[in-house]
Design brief:
alpha/beta; 16 helices; Amidase signature (AS) enzymes; 15 strands; 14% strand; 473 residues; 37% helix; eleven-stranded mixed beta sheet; two-stranded antiparallel ribbon; single chain
């Protein structure tokens, strides 16, 4: 059993591998949970990924799960599987900070959020909460409430955000999945930075409260193939999310990808320039997709304007609302860079707000047009690879400017998966994104798993997830 409790071995297991080990008695939930808690204790001081770690509670829950597996009566296929949840996902007895000292000591959870309820009902073991940046409004791990989250692939480098702690912890071998949330790329960006896979579902497929037309909960995993099972667990209608939809459908028959058309695009006509190493990785993914799909063809974006700018305005307004609701003492704790970015929203008139709302609608029309004529779309996740850990984004004063390829699909509601496409010369991961049509989430994840297998990035690069964080300065 010791072989399957070494964290370096656990980090290579798929969810199916771990379940088989539970079923066959080659390891058990107590051994695995203890190994991952020990890993958190060993590396969290370096990467700062989790807070509120539930060591005693998690081990007690693991003992109950072990007894159920031994009796042949697990609650589900993920009974006794360690996971984490994002700061912003409510949970009884755990503190909500939304990443910011603006909220003081945080708010103690008195009710479970929808993802938390589903995980607990299935017997999954919540190890702790993932740190996030202030208000969830930067693509980074810079948090006023908990400090800087650092990337296990290189601690001088950013994790992306806002599901920063979830990405860093999974990359370091802590947990098999982390529930994040995505409003402009917030599960896909950390996946890209940390060499992982993540799903931003069709709006409503994975319920989350309060209900939103643009923010979705989604799983982050080490392997794209594992997304399917977690998404199935987390999906389905819930009365607390009025936009929630049906459960995922059934797997596709073998050979289904032979009949699909995949569009490819690495230039939306706006945003930061795409770095050469990102283009090289994208080109390799296009070539690999050509061996999977029936037809792969380049498509051109025709937005006709910078479609990110109205999205940026909507995020400013969101930040201003949260900031304005706090008292003067707590407002003083908010980071100046973010306040300077969104403070102009205080003076916005209804006409000004309607202006950016119209811009978003125009951008959605451009995104829908981009998807027309193809079954799926392949893009980079980001135009650049990474930037220093202590910066909120690559463009000062506009912390989500680099979400060129991710944010438009939050507004349009299309599902999107990020997976690891390769590494740059520094050994930092580069993400690839696949986008599907609304409600085609299951086929999207199956295609992502097929592309991940075809690329075989970890084996071909001789790399594995960094359970020993690479301390870089």
């Amino acid at each position: 059993m010791s072989y399957l409790t070494e964290i370096s071995r656990l980090a290579t297991l798929s969810l199916a591998d771990l379940r088989a080990a539970y079923r066959e008695g080659r390891t058990d939930p107590v051994a695995v949970t203890r190994a991952m808690l020990d890993q958190a204790e060993r590396v969290n001081g370096t990467i700062n990924a989790l807070y509120g770690i539930r060591r005693d509670e998690a081990l007690t829950e693991a003992e109950a799960a072990r007894a159920r597996w031994k009796a042949g009566k697990p609650l589900s296929d993920v009974d006794g599987v360690p996971v984490s949840i994002k700061d912003s996902v409510p949970a009884v007895g755990m503190r909500w900070h939304h990443g910011s000292a603006l909220h003081g000591d945080g708010i103690l959870g008195k009710a479970d959020g929808i993802p938390t309820r589903k995980l607990k009902a299935a017997g999954a073991i919540i190890l702790g909460k993932g740190t996030m940046p202030d208000f969830g409004l930067s693509g980074s791990g810079v948090s006023g409430s908990h400090g800087i989250v650092r990337n296990p692939w290189g601690t001088a480098w950013n994790t992306g955000g806002s599901s920063a702690g979830g990405g860093a912890s999974i990359a370091a071998g802590i947990g098999m999945m982390s529930v994040g949330s995505d409003i402009a790329g917030s599960v896909r960006l950390p996946a890209s930075h940390c060499g992982l896979a993540a799903l931003k579902p069709t709006q409503g497929v994975i319920p989350h409260a309060p209900a939103s037309t643009v923010r979705s909960a989604g799983p982050i995993t080490r392997r794209a193939a594992d997304l399917i099972e977690w998404a199935r667990l987390l999906s389905g209608p819930d009365e607390d999310d009025r936009y929630s939809l049906l459960l995922l459908g059934q797997p596709q028959p073998a050979g289904w990808t032979n009949g699909i058309t995949v569009g490819t695009c690495a230039d939306f006509g706006f945003g930061p320039a795409v770095e050469p190493e990102v283009i090289a990785c994208f080109d390799a993914a296009v070539e690999a997709m050509g061996r999977i799909a029936g037809r792969v063809e380049p498509v051109s974006a025709d937005y006709g304007f910078d479609a990110y700018l109205p999205i940026d305005d909507s995020l400013k307004l969101r930040g201003w609302y949260e900031y304005a609701a706090a008292d003067a003492v707590h407002r003083a704790r908010a980071p100046k860079e973010l306040v300077d970015w969104f403070a102009e929203a205080e003076a916005w008139t209804p006409a000004r707000i309607r202006e950016f709302e119209s811009g978003i609608e125009r951008g959605v029309a451009g995104t829908v047009a981009l998807m027309r004529g193809v079954d799926f779309l392949l893009t980079p996740v980001m135009p650049l690879v990474n930037w220093p850990a202590d910066r909120r984004g690559p463009v000062f004063g506009m912390p989500l400017r680099h979400t060129t390829f991710t944010a438009p699909f939050n507004q349009s509601g299309h599902p999107a998966v990020s997976l690891c496409g390769g590494f740059d010369g520094r050994g930092l991961p580069i993400g690839i994104q696949i986008v599907g049509h609304r409600l085609d989430d299951l086929r999207l994840m199956e295609l992502a798993a097929a592309l991940e297998t075809e690329l075989d990035v970890m084996n071909r690069s001789g790399r594995s997830w960094p359970v020993e964080p690479v301390v870089a300065h």
